[in-house]
């Protein structure tokens, strides 16, 4: 079973990202589960959402404490949240940032990776909404999921031009991670 | 009754638990839905009102009301008039309904209500435990608990089937853990409306309000006859024990899915330690059981699906070979320091030939997460009981001493 923890701020679409990831993973033939670390939703407050992906049906209902992958939507969270908490030694922490991974001094053996998702989102979507972009980067960084499945899930949730623009941004982020 | 999940996958979609339940309600063809939105039940009634607005539930009226008290009161009238009637609520909303719940049950109205289980105030807390529905224990409603979103959806159809059985004619609370099940996205098979129509025939009660043939429901019973009404309610609960099993079996025949009837068991047959629980925590326990079994620990889980009627006989038969029983409760009876499952299991075994030590843990109050490590620590406590007897009969789990 692979466990993913997404850190963001209220309003950044962390919960939506977790859900879309579950939809995409199921389309890839896996079982999946997505849920938020339920809070009283406030815009700007730190939030977490979780996705599990497994070959067999998922029964576990606990939150994710030892993630294989951590996705950080907003680098300012690093000052207030221990995003690396429990990350597996062979795990990956993917941060939305224009800095190189070496910039981040986290207490973890997990591999730190960065992608400038905000720039990709502004360039292609025209708004600084990074959740779907980071899913594309995640697909590239992890090899766990088909980027086409993520694009399909996003286009189904956001039909029309919005979905198409997001899909383009997802592909861009995926390419950047796989070419890196 | 093993499911073939690879086959099931072809028919599954990834949706929110609330949507799965709302879709199941739609498939049951209700005539009246009356509800007041309250977190974390909100998505269910939003989805239902969308279905109604889109014309997807024919012959159904959605009543916008100003409180939960009105929501359930309206269903007294609609159900008595012969309309299949549904509501959903949680926590303070359910507590506000408390008075009317007795009326619904006493008038033998087969209303089905989803409870999206949540903690009760004060202090205010929107997260999951089961104090809300457990506190309705003596209202005369059947009370069922679901382990996952598929079971919560399927249980909706089973609930109408059980409630409307002529031998039963009692309302049903179909419970699912708030957020943990209501807000999770996972693969489910949405209920096929034609199959549900086959499973659940049209609601045609023997008695109903009809201007052409006037009757009165729940009007007055003096000391001459009140006792008999109460006795007959209890008789109906007794009959429901079989109806709940039958409803699960018939569901399996048509849909190929089975979650147990009154109870379900997992790895209990040779178990020294049996954990008892209700709702979504059962899934986590199954993973813990697999992990500990691999280490040679003989542990199993008994899922209680039906809290009312209480399946004393089924529980007794399932646990009689164990060395220790652990009851896990997301509720507490303050002043007794016990959860309901613990108290009632202990009580139902007292005058029997089954004499196994039983301990209780109150767990997951107000949404406190329940990691596998907590469950493993509880199993360690159970092992101590086997070795040296009970030291603490019932206790809180994961207390933060620094906050006291």
Automatic annotation (TrEMBL), chain A:
Keywords: Oxidoreductase, Pyruvate. It is an enzyme of class 1 (oxidoreductase). Residues 10-175 form the Pyruvate/ketoisovalerate oxidoreductase catalytic domain. SUPFAM superfamilies: Pyruvate-ferredoxin oxidoreductase, PFOR, domain III. InterPro entries: Oxidoreductase_gamma_subunit, PorC_KorC, Pyruvate_synthase_PorC, Pyrv/ketoisovalerate_OxRed_cat, Pyrv_flavodox_OxRed_cen. It catalyses: 2 oxidized [2Fe-2S]-[ferredoxin] + pyruvate + CoA = 2 reduced [2Fe-2S]-[ferredoxin] + acetyl-CoA + CO2 + H(+). Its EC number is 1.2.7.1. It holds the Pfam family POR. One of its GO terms (molecular function) is pyruvate synthase activity. PANTHER family: PYRUVATE SYNTHASE SUBUNIT PORC. Heterotetramer of one alpha, one beta, one delta and one gamma chain. This is Pyruvate synthase subunit PorC.
From TrEMBL, chain B:
Residues 271-372 form the Pyruvate:ferredoxin oxidoreductase core domain. It catalyses: 2 oxidized [2Fe-2S]-[ferredoxin] + pyruvate + CoA = 2 reduced [2Fe-2S]-[ferredoxin] + acetyl-CoA + CO2 + H(+). The keyword Oxidoreductase applies. This is Pyruvate synthase subunit PorA. One of its GO terms (biological process) is response to oxidative stress. GO terms for molecular function: pyruvate synthase activity. Keywords: Oxidoreductase, Pyruvate. CDD domains: TPP_PYR_PFOR_IOR-alpha_like. Heterotetramer of one alpha, one beta, one delta and one gamma chain. Its EC number is 1.2.7.1. InterPro entries: PFOR_II (IPR033412), Pyruvate:ferred/Flavod_OxRd (IPR050722), Pyruvate_synthase_PorA (IPR053390), Pyrv_Fd/Flavodoxin_OxRdtase_N (IPR002880), THDP-binding (IPR029061), Transketo_C/PFOR_II (IPR009014). The keyword Glycosyltransferase does not apply. Residues 24-247 form the Pyruvate flavodoxin/ferredoxin oxidoreductase pyrimidine binding domain.
């Amino acid at each position: 079973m692979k466990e993913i923890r997404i850190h963001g701020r209220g309003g950044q679409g962390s919960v939506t990202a977790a859900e879309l990831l579950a939809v995409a993973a199921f389309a890839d033939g896996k079982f999946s589960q997505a849920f938020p670390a339920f809070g009283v939703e406030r815009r700007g407050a730190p939030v977490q959402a979780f996705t599990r992906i497994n070959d067999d049906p998922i029964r576990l209902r606990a939150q994710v404490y030892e993630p294989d992958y951590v996705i950080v939507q907003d680098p300012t969270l690093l000052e207030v949240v221990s995003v690396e908490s429990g990350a597996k030694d062979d795990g990956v922490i993917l941060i939305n940032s224009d800095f190189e991974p070496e910039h981040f001094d986290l207490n973890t053996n997990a591999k730190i990776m960065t992608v400038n998702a905000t720039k990709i989102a502004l360039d292609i979507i025209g708004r600084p909404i990074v959740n779907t972009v980071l899913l594309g980067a995640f697909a590239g960084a992890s090899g766990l999921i088909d980027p086409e499945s993520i694009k399909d899930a996003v286009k189904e949730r956001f039909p029309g031009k919005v979905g198409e623009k997001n899909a383009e941004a997802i592909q861009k982020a995926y390419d950047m991670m796989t070419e890196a | 009754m093993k499911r073939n999940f690879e086959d099931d996958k072809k028919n599954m979609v990834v949706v929110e638990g609330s949507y799965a339940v709302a879709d199941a309600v739609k498939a049951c063809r209700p005539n009246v839905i009356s509800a007041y939105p309250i977190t974390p039940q909100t998505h269910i009634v939003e989805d239902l009102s969308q279905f109604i607005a889109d014309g997807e539930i024919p012959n159904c009226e959605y009543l916008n009301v100003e409180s939960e008290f009105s929501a359930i009161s309206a269903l007294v009238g609609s159900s008595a008039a012969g309309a299949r009637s549904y509501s959903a609520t949680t926590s303070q909303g359910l507590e506000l309904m408390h008075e009317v719940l007795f009326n619904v049950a006493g008038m033998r109205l087969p209303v089905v209500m989803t409870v999206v289980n949540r903690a009760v105030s004060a202090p205010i807390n929107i997260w999951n435990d089961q104090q809300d529905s457990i506190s309705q224990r003596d209202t005369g409603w059947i009370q069922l608990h679901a382990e996952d979103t598929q079971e919560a959806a399927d249980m909706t159809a089973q609930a109408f089937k059980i409630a409307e059985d002529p031998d039963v004619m009692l309302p049903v609370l179909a419970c699912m853990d708030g957020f943990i099940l209501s807000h999770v996205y996972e693969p489910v098979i949405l209920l096929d409306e034609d199959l549900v129509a086959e499973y659940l025939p049209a609601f045609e009660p023997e008695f109903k309000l009809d201007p052409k043939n006037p009757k009165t429901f729940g009007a007055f019973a003096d000391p001459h006859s009140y006792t008999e009404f109460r006795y007959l309610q209890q008789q109906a609960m007794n009959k429901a024990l079989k109806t709940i099993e039958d409803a699960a079996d018939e569901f399996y025949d048509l849909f190929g899915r089975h979650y147990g009837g009154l109870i379900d068991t997992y790895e209990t047959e040779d178990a020294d330690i049996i954990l008892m629980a209700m709702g979504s925590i059962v899934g986590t326990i199954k993973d813990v059981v697999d992990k500990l079994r691999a280490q040679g620990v003989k542990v199993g889980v008994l899922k209680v699906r039906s809290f009312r009627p209480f399946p004393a006989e089924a529980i007794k038969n399932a646990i009689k070979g164990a060395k220790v029983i652990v009851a896990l409760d997301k509720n507490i009876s303050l002043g007794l320091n016990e959860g309901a499952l613990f108290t009632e299991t202990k009580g139902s075994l007292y005058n029997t030939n089954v004499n196994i030590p039983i301990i209780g843990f109150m767990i997951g109050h107000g949404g406190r997460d329940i990691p596998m490590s907590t469950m493993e620590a509880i199993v360690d406590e159970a092992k101590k009981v086997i070795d040296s007897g009970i030291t603490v009969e019932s206790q809180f789990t994961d207390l933060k001493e620094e906050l006291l």
